[in-house]
Amino acid sequence: MMKICMVGTGYVGLVTGACFADMGNEVWCVDVDEVKITNLKAAILPIYEPGLKELVERNLKEGRLRFTTEIKLGIEDALLCFITVGTPPCEDGSADLSYIFSAAQAIGQCMNHYLIVVTKSTVPVGTTEKVRDIIRQELKVSAREHVGFDVVSNPEFLKEGAAVEDFMRPDRVVIGTENIGTAELMKQLYKPFVRNQNPILIMDTKSAEMTKYAANVMLAARISFMNEIAQLCDIVGGDITNIRTGIAADHRIGRQFLYAGAGYGGSCFPKDVKELINLGYKNGLEMAIATAVHEVNERQKHYLVDMIRKRFGEKLDGMRFGVWGLAFKPQTDDMREAPSLVIVQSLINMGAKIVAFDPQAIKEAQQVFEDYADHIQYVGDMMEAVNDADALILITDWRQFRQPDFSDMKSRMRQLVLFDGRNQYDFEQIEKYGFEYYCIGRNYRGK
Ligand code: UDX
């Protein structure tokens, strides 16, 4: 059992804190947001994540997980202190590290015993060393230089929608430290989580920091590559779903993250790709691949809109579009950088009215589309979204959209036009009910 403090109770901090607690550790989760902390004490979560609520409830009840706004209280008895605050993108694409640095300052100001400070947020190469400098400086200012500490980089690899599962059964754990003792302690902490001989990898802090960027940008590159091939198929022929299975069978390539679609979104891929480009730029190196990954994705988010424009023209006044799925991917209510932002806004700007359904993200969507409120209607049932619609647009691949009642849809829609941004349907199904069907990279020209 270890005593742990999480500084920053956002997505990563909350999942990590709850999972550590569930493994028997004593965890304090700290945040400056008083409302968030008051809610969490009553097990009211700020985000939706499968399995997380149960985990928080159980560990709160059993006293291993506690919440506070006071960092001093959080680190009083702790041996490990994780920095899990946000690193949002700045205007120029670089990561905003101000929350990281103020967390480091706050830790340095109230730490009075040996502490291992771990950066878990995704941070550019060199940040963990900066955290060390800040803490050292704070200790010096207050003449507490005798208080020892160490810093570690320990990037997270959680996927939203499967974060608890990913944390409980990680493919690997990356630990960046140059200190053998610290490495040993971190290994002890993570040992109960790694099974199936998945490794705990010890490396220097900079490699650990870079590993996170390299992993995310490579995954994003796979998606952009497939999206590019998909657009080419729509012109020259070929079906991207066949090509995907064809290349996935090569073990060197593998099966995952090869789905063409409406483009990637979320809080990580877009941000990390931009930060890597920025890091190169600041250091005089053009990151040509990362730049292309970003550009292809921006283009992809407009691909469905371009198809709609081609079919219905520039002016969509008086037309009604049903939308299925707003979140950046299934199993989350997160709208950050979601392709739906570009698609919905473009259609409204062309004069359309949107009737949208999402199983989890409606509340979030209402906030981000606040300025468009007069043009969007939200409905609580997927079938309601297609009533009187001139077309249905599927943007997020929630499982419940997989096998809709096509004959019911047929009786509700004004025109039977379906734009499928995630290649969810078979041509036979669609043709049986007489839908006009548009999808991504399958070179479908209808019957
Ligand atoms: C990602 C990484 O997977 C995770 O390891 C890292 O720690 C954080 O960033 P996340 O942002 O939660 O996780 O979502 P992910 O499941 O990776 O999906 C990202 C985006 O890519 C989504 O918009 C998704 O729809 C899209 N995607 C994914 C595709 O378009 N095609 C695919 O084949 C896979």
Protein described:
The protein is an alpha/beta fold. It has 3 domains: 201 residues, Rossmann fold (3-Layer(aba) Sandwich), CATH 3.40.50.720; 81 residues, N-(1-d-carboxylethyl)-l-norvaline Dehydrogenase, domain 2; 137 residues, NAD(P)-binding Rossmann-like Domain (Rossmann fold), CATH 3.40.50. Helix content is 43%, strand content 13%. The protein has 17 helices and 14 strands. The protein has a 6-stranded parallel sheet with strand order 3-2-1-4-5-6, with helices on both faces. The chain has a 6-stranded parallel sheet with strand order 11-10-9-12-13-14. Helix 5 runs parallel beside helix 6, helix 9 crosses helix 11 and helix 11 runs antiparallel to helix 12. The longest helix is centred in the middle third of the chain and has 32 residues. The chain binds uridine-5'-diphosphate-xylopyranose (UDX). Uridine-5'-diphosphate-xylopyranose binds next to helix 9. The site of uridine-5'-diphosphate-xylopyranose (UDX) has 19 residues, from helix 9. InterPro entries: 6-PGluconate_DH-like_C_sf, NAD(P)-bd_dom_sf, UDP-Glc/GDP-Man, UDP-Glc/GDP-Man_DH_C, UDP-Glc/GDP-Man_DH_C_sf, UDP-Glc/GDP-Man_DH_dimer, UDP-Glc/GDP-Man_DH_N, UDPglc_DH_bac. Keywords: NAD, Oxidoreductase. It comes from Pelosinus baikalensis.
